[in-house]
Prior knowledge:
Blueprint: H1 6-20, E1 29-32, H2 34-37, H3 43-55, E2 65-67, H4 94-102, E3 107-113, H5 129-138, E4 141-148, H6 155-158, H7 162-180, E5 186-189, H8 201-204, E6 207-209, H9 218-228, E7 240-242, H10 262-274, E8 279-281, H11 290-296, H12 299-305, E9 315-318, E10 338-343, E11 346-352, E12 359-364, E13 375-381, E14 386-392, E15 394-399, E16 404-414, E17 445-447, E18 450-452
Helix pairs in contact: 3-4, 5-7, 10-11, 10-12
The protein binds 2-acetamido-2-deoxy-beta-D-glucopyranose (12 copies).
Amino acid sequence: MAFITTGTLLSLAALAQARNNGVGKLPVMGYDTYNAFGCDYDGALATAQAKAMNETGLVALGYNTFILDDCYALKERDAQGFLQQNLTRFPGGLKKWTESINQYGVSGSAYSSNGYLTCGAYPGGYGHEMQDLETWRSWGWDGMVKYDNCYIPYDNVTMENEFGRFKRMADAIDDLAAKYNEKPFIYSLCQWGWENPMNWAPRISQAWRIDADITPFWTAIKTIINLQAASYLATGFYQHGDMDMLEVGNSGQGTPVGNMTLAEQRSHFTAWTLLKSHLLIGTDLRNATNETLSILGNKELIDINQDENEGAALAPFRVGFQDDFSDIEYNFTSPPPYWAGNSSYGAVFMIINYADEQREMGFNLTENWAVRAGRQYNVRDMWKHEHVGVAVRNWTVTLEAHDVAALLLTDVGPEPARKLADGELAPPCAYPFLAHQCTSPNGSFIYNGSITEWGF
Length: 456
Ligand SMILES: *[C@@H]1O[C@H](CO)[C@@H](O)[C@H](O)[C@H]1NC(C)=O
Ligand SMILES: *[C@@H]1O[C@H](CO)[C@@H](O)[C@H](O)[C@H]1NC(C)=O
Ligand SMILES: *[C@@H]1O[C@H](CO)[C@@H](O)[C@H](O)[C@H]1NC(C)=O
Ligand SMILES: *[C@@H]1O[C@H](CO)[C@@H](O)[C@H](O)[C@H]1NC(C)=O
Ligand SMILES: *[C@@H]1O[C@H](CO)[C@@H](O)[C@H](O)[C@H]1NC(C)=O
Ligand SMILES: *[C@@H]1O[C@H](CO)[C@@H](O)[C@H](O)[C@H]1NC(C)=O
Ligand SMILES: *[C@@H]1O[C@H](CO)[C@@H](O)[C@H](O)[C@H]1NC(C)=O
Ligand SMILES: *[C@@H]1O[C@H](CO)[C@@H](O)[C@H](O)[C@H]1NC(C)=O
Ligand SMILES: *[C@@H]1O[C@H](CO)[C@@H](O)[C@H](O)[C@H]1NC(C)=O
Ligand SMILES: *[C@@H]1O[C@H](CO)[C@@H](O)[C@H](O)[C@H]1NC(C)=O
Ligand SMILES: *[C@@H]1O[C@H](CO)[C@@H](O)[C@H](O)[C@H]1NC(C)=O
Ligand SMILES: *[C@@H]1O[C@H](CO)[C@@H](O)[C@H](O)[C@H]1NC(C)=O
């Protein structure tokens, strides 16, 4: 039994070093079997997904790892405690199956749980951490370990909270990498946001789920975006708030069968990419429509998700439907609609219309740090894939119910000089409310529409 001692605490520095070696810097892209198939899949069906990923160009876009989610093994370990292969599900075994996906440029990743059993009641990793890592390695898996939170031992057995229970696998991953002098597995916690993982998961892992399992319905998407609004600040390079596998493509199919509109799926994908979540496809790609592929294949959004120079998630800059900051309140029926941040390609804005009808939605350039007041910006629509205009002072979009705008703003110089309008006292200053502290060169304030001689 491994209790945390001073010695293992010191090895956190080594774990951080391993992470900083480049492993897990960016969110992981790939495929996971769970949303499409639950436990109802076999090797041939999984390989067909990898084949489709290659043929549709998704591998070239960066979707390059494959997680066999729950249920790939037999229900019992062997006499020596090793995971046993289901040779009916994977004829020829899992090493052979892994080679079948490797030919498409896709690598293997593991799923397990930190308890006695996985959530589907297959053998869990507790007490077998190193042994299972050796097994996965022997099957040729080298990508990520997705580690669930089911069938956990009593407190009086582990004498640990979530942190300690999940640290066991972190240590084993470290030991395995040291033993073979190989890059460590990326470690991705699937513990549904218990005990606020944003506060501790970055010490031992590169990603943590923020939520319970996603479902292919709009209500789930809104709930997850709202949760990420409370934890986006912890997201960065090597530490990713995982919003769960994608449900894009699961309208009319999937497990369960979903019903999101294309607008809802666009909003879903935009939020997942720009809030720097893993991008793990969860739909049967043999049935993927062109619309599904064009959402999953939005290269402009993927480039921002995988930006080598900017690890932070977009941040919300207004809350709810209100037009200013005067009523910042956490609102479950209306998560933040306005988000912005920076990227290598320009300032990035995301606006989501949660209303059930069309809305005009806009923002002022003075509202967000990622752009500068008094400048003008080229605006690129990353769903239309075209330049849509030049923003001076503000930008407005018309959005259908549950649709999204993903905008890239690039600076094209100072805003055009203009004459003051009738009754206008001075050019404005950047501030969302009254022009408090907006000062003319002679020291007088322009305050609430009148001039106040304040003086130096
Ligand atoms: C992967 O896709 C490319 C492009 O469609 C194709 O040329 C190549 O043969 C595919 N690879 C395999 C192993 O099928
Ligand atoms: C083994 O695979 C077969 C075929 O997919 C499946 O019917 C069976 O339930 C699997 N066994 C276990 C223990 O999952
Ligand atoms: C933990 O507590 C349970 C219930 O009191 C008890 O049956 C069990 O023996 C304890 N286990 C250990 C390892 O102390
Ligand atoms: C989608 O399905 C969910 C779950 O069955 C249901 O609650 C919701 O009303 C459906 N939405 C639409 C627009 O049909
Ligand atoms: C998806 O495609 C496969 C193979 O073409 C087919 O067997 C299956 O029924 C399709 N599923 C749906 C929901 O259309
Ligand atoms: C889907 O896209 C492909 C490739 O661009 C095209 O050949 C095909 O006609 C499209 N299918 C439909 C139903 O539009
Ligand atoms: C929350 O948002 C809904 C719209 O979805 C709005 O009707 C409601 O007034 C908001 N509640 C608060 C407390 O802002
Ligand atoms: C945005 O990111 C780019 C690329 O890292 C950087 O050059 C630029 O200075 C950043 N802009 C701001 C406002 O931080
Ligand atoms: C947006 O900016 C334009 C100038 O570019 C101005 O005429 C217009 O009144 C502004 N709209 C809002 C809502 O601030
Ligand atoms: C945007 O600027 C206009 C003045 O141009 C102002 O009336 C409006 O309140 C501002 N909106 C926000 C959200 O700051
Ligand atoms: C200071 O500047 C403001 C705005 O330019 C002007 O309206 C005001 O008359 C000036 N005050 C003095 C004392 O010159
Ligand atoms: C701003 O001026 C308006 C009238 O022009 C007045 O009703 C309002 O109370 C003023 N606000 C403040 C904060 O002084």
